[in-house]
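Below: protein 1.
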Amino acid sequence: MTTVYFIRHAQSDPSHRDDRTRPLTEAGLRDTKLITACLGSRGISHILSSPYQRTLDTVAHLAETLALSVETDEDFRERDAGGWHGDDFLDFVRAQWQDFEYRTENGESLAMVQKRNVAALERALSKYRGQTIAVATHGTALGTILNHYDPNWGIKSFLRILNTMPYVIRLEIGDDGAKPRLSEILRVEKQWRKNG
């Protein structure tokens, strides 16, 4: 059995427009200790992360507590929305979940996001087979991974976690070919953005 704890980052500051360097809010930094309390005794042997600052900061306390380094993988990064930050962002999100090929001119479709995130996960599953790992990720990126394992995971599921930061969900993959199991472990409700 291989177990993955996906950790959606804690609350970040949406006024900081650079996706790669966006920091956590003070509340988000405090909430990282909830992750450690939740996962610190679950036998995690490796921590992987998107290279974005908010994910790295989200698992820093857990990594320090477990005396583990954090391995980054560029393919675990969030969806590139093409630099678009319009007021009707939820309309854009709904369009993407209704059509996995929909994207802005310079952005990524959910199909593209899913392909690279699942590839990163499969590399990790191969490398750490039979172990328990944590993966620090993002809402949309995580959503596409969950959709890969459960096609019913779509826009309604995504909107349900939109204001959930951090969010921890466990994926258990057996060696017997049985359907992988998903279970929610931690939900912390935090406002994502003022108009969303």
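Below: protein 2.
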Amino acid sequence: MKLQYLGHSCFRIISEMGTTVVTDPYKSSMVGFEMANVRCDVVTVSHHHADHDCTDNIAGNPPIVDEQISCAADDIAVQSFATFHDAERGAKRGANLVFAFVVDGLRIVHMGDIGCFDEEIARRIFACDVLMIPVGGTFTVDAQGAKQWVDSVQPKIVVPMHYRTAEHSFAIDGADKFVAMFPQKDVVMGGDSLVLDDQPQNDRTKVVVLQRFYE
């Protein structure tokens, strides 16, 4: 399984067989930088805001999954769970979908723009192999809220997303507050991809900070 970071909350998940899913593609002019042009078999959308549902840079016309569902995209199993974009049960920013994938025997979870903690969802995704979670606050959970999810879910690897970088036009926090909550030895500053051939064997959650993929 290969997880490639396309920036903001967008990732490309590639199975060993070559099946490809892109999560939450963004409108480049809204986020502040250009998303790479990519191909995929399926697009998942956690909610319909332009920084999460824009397919301008995706080649072809792949199907879009934007509802609560349990299905398969060839060898990748896809399941989504209804959640909220804010701490007021969607009253401020609406609904959000959490997507859970099974890829090459690995459980990969994308939290979308999760805005609050949900014990039932945490139970459903408990002990996943990779958790992609927003950490920038303002529009999503902040660093402390993201840490609550990590402590409850206990993923093998957590990949922060939806945080401010030098390129962003968003007024949100960077990843530093979240990363600082973990021992330095458990933090890896990675490249633009995470490649896993087998289930991670680490006893404690490892934080992997990925760089944006450029064409």
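Residues 143-153 form the longest helix (11 residues).
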